[in-house]
Amino acid sequence: MSRCRVIVLEKLSVEAVEAILMRAIKSLGIQVLSQDEELTSSMNANNSKGSELCVFIERRAINTLAYLCDGDARTGLNGLQMAVQSRLTNPSHQSNIHEYSAKQVVITEDHVKEGLQRSHILYDRAGEEHYNCISALHKSMRGSDENASLYWLARMLEGGEDPLYVARRLVRFASEDIGLADPLALPQAVAAYQGCHFIGMPECEVLLAQCVVYFARAPKSIEVYSAYSNVKMCLRDHQGPLPPVPLHLRNAPTKLMKNLGYGKDYKYNPMYKNPVEQEYLPEELKGIDFFTRSKI
């Protein structure tokens, strides 16, 4: 490891990505169209070449692809490849205002966007961006920024993220960051998850948006989360065998267990008008308060 060197690859500029795309387009023999009049003249010129299939790409499509790939040339090249393959497999569908012959294929801005969206390149669900975006959403809701929360939610959903994954994270957030400050947050998250499961995308996006805004506006409390973390720490740091369950708290379904003292002197609270004095923790933990990490 001492001989390893960490190299950070920064994002390329839009101009640099566009230059790389242009080299790839040239190597593939694809012609670039910048204006409708050029489109017509270029296609007429290529009609004289016989039965050879001519592939064209709009200048606007190249610009859009360079912007959408977010500084990653590999993403841009993959997007270009998908757009070309998609058009070649369905060359009869033309979305431009011109009528093109079957020998001519045009890649437009819409084709580039559709290709990127379909393959989820705008949002890498299996890579670092997946975790970066969910972290940004979590922190935006925690910071009560409803605008940023909606932005990160939309960025994930529009990029093809599984809505149920987001909904599961919201269920966790409801108890971890809001907790008892607003007990209705958990039912809100569970309802959003169920709604997403019932109707799916794109209809369920507004359910998640409602839940995200609710959480951003809700009061926050980590009281329960912190207390439970203290309990786990107590268990992990314990030396030796764990303390036994006090006899009066044990169930006694058999006569033998009753003879051994199971359940003896247990006070059944509903039978008393006021809360009874009774110890519920093991003897060696008596008086500990996990909410304040102190002895009472």
Automatic annotation (TrEMBL):
A GO biological-process term: innate immune response
Gene3D superfamilies: 1.10.8.60, 1.20.272.10, DNA polymerase III clamp loader subunits, C-terminal domain
Highest taxon of the lineage: Eukaryota
Gene Ontology CC annotations of this record: cytoplasm; nucleus
Pfam family, one: MgsA_C
UniProt keywords, alphabetically: Acetylation, ATP-binding, Cytoplasm, Hydrolase, Immunity, Innate immunity, Isopeptide bond, Nucleotide-binding, Phosphoprotein, Ubl conjugation
Subunit and partners: Forms homooligomers, possibly octamers. Directly interacts with POLD1, POLD2 and POLD4. Interacts with the N-terminal domain of WRN. Interacts (via UBZ4-type zinc finger) with monoubiquitin and polyubiquitin. Interacts with TRIM14 and PPP6C; these interactions positively regulate the RIGI signaling pathway.
Function statement: Functions as a modulator of initiation or reinitiation events during DNA polymerase delta-mediated DNA synthesis. In the presence of ATP, stimulation of DNA polymerase delta-mediated DNA synthesis is decreased. Also plays a role in the innate immune defense against viruses. Stabilizes the RIGI dsRNA interaction and promotes RIGI 'Lys-63'-linked polyubiquitination. In turn, RIGI transmits the signal through mitochondrial MAVS.
PANTHER family: ATPASE WRNIP1, WERNER HELICASE-INTERACTING PROTEIN 1 FAMILY MEMBER
Protein name: ATPase WRNIP1
Organism field: Micrurus paraensis
